[in-house]
From TrEMBL:
PANTHER family: ADENINE PHOSPHORIBOSYLTRANSFERASE, URACIL PHOSPHORIBOSYLTRANSFERASE, CHLOROPLASTIC
The protein's name in its UniProt record: Uracil phosphoribosyltransferase
Cofactor detail note: Binds 1 Mg(2+) ion per subunit. The magnesium is bound as Mg-PRPP.
InterPro entries recorded: PRTase-like, PRTase_dom, Upp_B, UPRT, UPRTase/APRTase
Organism of origin: Nocardioides humilatus
Length: 213
């Protein structure tokens, strides 16, 4: 597993405002959107392209276009949905599949409650969107799900990660042949005893969409 922490002053600035507990939901959604577009630039560095012959107003030339099959973008509901528009801004022709997952806040185990993905993901590059890599349980389950369907290259785009979660994720993916990259805006200090990222930003889903009882 490769982990890329995006080191950029604009990312750091936006992340600081995002973390602030006084930042309201509309601002939080806008900042998430902007941050993901910045992360997407790094996350798509290895997106597959193929040669394409075109004619400019001056001369014929060969450039590149996104290869087929197109990449699949997979937001993990609920909080990952807040990252979808920011990602699609850079990959407007990507397909989108959905995974609904929730972490049991007592056991910290991830459960899948919804799935809408192509049956066959053979040869597909997948971009998984989830703002928080905390214990890593959610992301590990999502990646296993996609690779079991045939996905052969996975990049996870996250806002924050905890070192413990990255280690758990790596251990959870042991033996997997498929390359996995995690692109993240910041590697935080640790998890607290409730499995929250410290200093973190709180519950990303609640801050994006409000508290569900
Ligand atoms: O790394 P983990 O310990 O598995 O935790 C991370 C997960 O927790 C949050 O989702 P949550 O379960 O709160 O669902 P939500 O997006 O609907 O709020 C977050 O969006 C991740 O999916
Ligand atoms: O800090 C955390 C951990 C899990 N999920 C969140 O939304 N935030
Ligand atoms: Mg949540």
């Amino acid at each position: 597993m490769r982990t890329l922490v995006v080191d950029h002053p604009l990312v750091a600035h936006k992340l600081t405002v995002l973390r602030d507990e006084t930042t309201d939901s509309p601002t939080f959604r806008n900042l998430t959107d902007e941050l993901v577009t910045l992360l997407a630039y790094e996350a798509t560095r290895d997106v597959r392209v193929e040669p394409s012959d075109i004619v400019t107003p001056v001369a014929p030339t060969t450039g590149v276009k996104l290869a087929t099959p197109r990449p699949l973008v997979v937001p993990i509901l609920r909080a990952g949905l807040g990252m979808l528009d920011g990602m699609m801004r850079l990959l407007p022709t990507a397909e989108v599949g959905f995974l609904g997952m929730v972490r049991n806040e007592e056991t910290l185990e991830a459960a899948t409650y919804a799935e809408r993905l192509p049956e066959d993901l053979s040869g597909r590059q997948c971009y998984v969107l989830d703002p928080m890599l905390a214990t890593g349980g959610t992301l590990a389950a999502a990646i296993r799900f996609l690779t079991a369907r045939g996905a052969d290259d996975i990049t996870a785009v996250c806002l924050l990660a905890a070192p413990e979660g990255c280690a758990n994720l790596e251990a959870g993916l042991a033996g997997l042949e498929v390359p996995v990259t995690v692109v993240v805006a910041a590697m935080d200090e640790k998890l607290n005893d409730k499995g929250y990222i410290v200093p973190g930003l709180g519950d990303a889903g609640d801050r994006l969409y409000g508290v569900v009882g």
